[in-house]
């Protein structure tokens, strides 16, 4: 492992929408392949990496609730969507020669392992990529919160949020051309300014456990390994200096 690496164990959070590529729905295999190549590069650097993937490309619990569904049932459907995305990502990673395990908060032993913290830690120590599926296993919690929770449980040095843009902006850069990108923010800045990059509960959990959040564009080929060595633009969210 490179002695210059600041982060030895990280959790990558990506949305389900990130897997759609240019599609309107579902999984774009070219996009999944591109993300898998970045994850393999990080693994080859000697960094232990785990993932949480959202399910919004297939079904989003909040959207179901707005259509009149019971929120808890809609959220469980969203959790099942994360398992589909996790299995797809596992297939892609193993096609690239990366040993991968999917651990689900919702027991589904025919297709993946149940989430057991010590088992997950052992997989990471053996150099495997671990994908945490099924959110927290509870309704009313997003996959952002699940990502922060798993990052704490795994003792991660950083939580990486792969988004559609290269950091946190003062407004949506796609609709506000003069939006300002931040290089650094404190956790309190994120919460007090209601910057909707991650849920408040996820930011609070990261703050309580002093885990920095790095926000970057997952769609730039090679961005993930470059972010880890400080060679790619991103926004770092941590304690105020």
Outline the fold blueprint.
Blueprint: E1 9-14, H1 29-44, E2 48-53, H2 61-66, H3 71-95, E3 100-104, E4 113-114, H4 117-125, E5 129-133, H5 143-153, E6 158-163, E7 168-169, E8 181-182, E9 184-186, H6 187-192, H7 200-208, E10 213-217, H8 223-228, E11 235-238
Parallel strand pairs: 1-2, 1-6, 2-5, 3-4, 3-5, 6-10, 9-11
Antiparallel strand pairs: 7-8, 10-11
Write the element-wise H/E pattern from the N-terminal end onward.
EHEHHEEHEHEEEEHHEHE
- Let me know the average pLDDT: 94
Choose one word for the global shape: globular
User: Biggest sheet: strands, sense, closure?
Assistant: 9 strands, mixed
Fraction in beta strands: 15-25%
CATH domain class name: Alpha Beta
Instruction: Please count the beta strands (DSSP E, at least 2 residues each).
Output: 11
Taking the alpha carbons of the first and last residues, their distance comes to 29 Å
What is the CA-based Rg, rounded? 17 Å
Residue runs with pLDDT of under 50 for 5 or more positions = none
Structural class: alpha/beta
Named CATH architecture: 3-Layer(aba) Sandwich
Strand numbers in spatial order across the main sheet: 4-3-5-2-1-6-10-11-9
Number of domains: 1
Supply the number of helical segments: 8
Q: What's the CATH topology name?
A: Carbamate kinase
| Proportion of helical residues | 25-40%
The CATH homologous superfamily: Acetylglutamate kinase-like
């Amino acid at each position: 492992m490179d002695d210059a690496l600041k982060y030895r164990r990280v959790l990558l959070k990506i949305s389900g929408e990130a897997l759609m590529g240019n599609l309107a729905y579902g999984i774009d295999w070219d996009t999944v392949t591109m993300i898998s190549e970045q994850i393999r590069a990080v693994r080859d650097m000697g960094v232990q990496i785990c993932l949480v993937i959202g399910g919004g490309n297939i079904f989003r619990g909040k959207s179901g609730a707005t259509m009149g569904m019971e929120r808890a049932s809609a959220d469980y459907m969203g959790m099942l969507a994360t398992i589909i995305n996790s299995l797809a990502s596992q297939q892609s990673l193993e096609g690239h020669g990366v040993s991968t395990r999917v651990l689900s908060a919702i027991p589904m032993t025919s297709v993946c392992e149940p989430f057991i913290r010590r088992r997950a830690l052992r997989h990471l120590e053996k150099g495997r990529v671990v994908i945490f599926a099924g959110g927290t296993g509870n309704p009313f919690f997003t996959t952002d919160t699940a990502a922060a929770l798993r990052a704490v449980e795994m003792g991660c040095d950083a939580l990486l949020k792969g988004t559609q843009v290269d950091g946190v902006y003062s407004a949506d850069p796609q609709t506000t051309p003069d939006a300002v990108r931040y290089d650094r923010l404190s956790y309190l800045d994120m919460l007090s300014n209601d910057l909707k990059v991650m849920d408040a509960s996820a930011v609070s959990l990261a703050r309580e456990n002093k885990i920095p959040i790095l926000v970057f564009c997952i769609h730039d080929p090679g961005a993930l390994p470059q972010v880890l060595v400080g060679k790619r633009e991103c926004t770092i969210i941590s304690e105020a200096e």
